[in-house]
Amino acid sequence: MSHHIVEVKDLRHSYPDGTEALRGVSFTIHHGESVAVIGANGAGKSTLLLHLNGYLPPTAGEVRIGDTPVVRTTLAEVRRTVGMVFQDPDDQLFMPTVGEDVAFGPLNLGLPPGEVERRVAESLARVGAGHLRDKPPYRLSGGEKKRAAIATVLSMSPDILVMDEPTAGLDPFARRQLMGLLREFRHTKIFTSHDLDMVLELCERTIVLREGVVAADGPPREIFRNAELLAACRLEPPFSMQGCPVCGTGGR
Ligand SMILES: Nc1ncnc2c1ncn2[C@@H]1O[C@H](COP(=O)(O)OP(=O)(O)OP(=O)(O)O)[C@@H](O)[C@H]1O
Fold first, then answer.
1. Where a domain ends, among 157, 178, 210?
2. Which GO biological-process labels does this protein carry (predicted)?
């Protein structure tokens, strides 16, 4: 698969109950870009991400990863390239132990046992979850589950990392650790977040969704300075760009 470009063309998605979650979304993301998809609750962020590796089929329009259209017959190939961390870790963890969950993908790729072991140990260590390896996922706290879910994706060494609200439910230390991990990840990353300070710190580009359409696409700092746009999209600037509530000064 060449270049790992993500191309979304006039993507529309209607759920069976008639909700039009995406109403014509188009953009191109190039290799190595770090892109945050932001927007108010219900704007269509999760729905969009679920199309990037074919968990949802488009009602109309198209998604391509490199030269490959995301369709039923290419799903296995696409999912080797695009690693997806779901919003709810319970959708990702289904084996008796965390270690087996993290090993599941590499084993399915047919990797030799030594390589599987190396990937499991490394992925768990990168999210600070080595000590959780033998635990059943249902015994983990919410933040621990999130970290285990991220490890299941890292163990696949994806070229494109897609994450739905990766820092939701994490304590400040784990959030910082995850941000470090994302910063280190050299390939393309696309994530949704309500954590706009993280977006400001990690991304060079933000796509703003509003009611299923792209309301803005550009550098985060420019977007966060546009008060009119933020208000129309029911967003607020990140804390680090808001002035001091007491003395009214500051804000980067
Ligand atoms: N399975 C479903 N059936 C019907 N409607 C759905 C379904 N899943 C999501 N929706 C609707 O689609 C719209 C977009 O939802 P989506 O989950 O993509 O939003 P979001 O931007 O990720 O929101 P949040 O910030 O709350 O996670 C919402 O109106 C939501 O109610």
1. 157
2. cobalt ion transport
